[in-house]
Model the fold of this input.
Amino acid sequence: MPRKPPFPSVSKAKTRISELEAMKAVLARAIDDAATPPRELPALVRRHIEVSELLADLSAREAETEKTDRARSMVDEVFRLSDI
Done:
């Protein structure tokens, strides 16, 4: 019998993004599980959508911060006449 691949642990996440990714994996597994009662599915799906949106927002914010930091580091570089 093949072993199930381990899914991320929410409690062991070191960053907010990894925590959200782990939560999304846990929710997806619960949604796909045949033993999940049908009455629980709407709440699980709603929460999965919320976590996906939070993850997308946080990823976009980190990308923007990285872009700003890169631009700021270029401005702070020493000007050398020989670079022209």
